[in-house]
Design a protein that fits this description.
Helix content: 40-55%
Largest sheet: none
Distance between the termini: 60 Å
Number of helices: 4
Shape: elongated
Strand content: under 5%
Radius of gyration: 21 Å
Structural class: mainly alpha
Oligomer: single chain
Number of domains: 2
Number of strands: 0
């Protein structure tokens, strides 16, 4: 049985949960700004941003215990091997990359 139709503050039919999830995924996948969603799908920018925030919060709550945790030694070893294979030595503990040679960067960034 389908859920009852919800109405927005303007008295128009609201967006379904499927539409909201699709829009949140589109915003993340294509880096779509909320005002573009407003123009293309008719969802107000504030609703787009609220929907995206709710979607991300839900994903974190569902998966945080399994996937969002501190790495153990096995994880660290795997990440270090992968990084070194790609030329990123000493990646763990140096996420600011201040140990890199920045000779080709503008002096304001060094």
């Amino acid at each position: 049985m389908a859920a009852a139709m919800k109405w927005n503050r303007a008295g128009r039919p609201g967006f379904s949960p499927h539409q909201k999830v699709t829009i949140a995924l589109q915003m993340m996948a294509y880096d779509s700004p909320a005002d573009l969603i407003d123009e293309t799908h008719g969802m107000f920018e504030s609703t787009c941003l609220d929907t995206l925030e709710q979607f991300c919060d839900t994903i974190v709550q569902v998966y945080k215990d399994e996937y969002i945790c501190e790495p153990n030694q096995e994880d660290l070893n795997r990440l270090l091997r992968k990084a070194e294979d790609r030329g990123f030595l000493s990646m763990i503990g140096s996420s600011d990359y201040m140990h890199w040679d920045w000779k080709n960067c503008p002096t304001g960034w060094q």
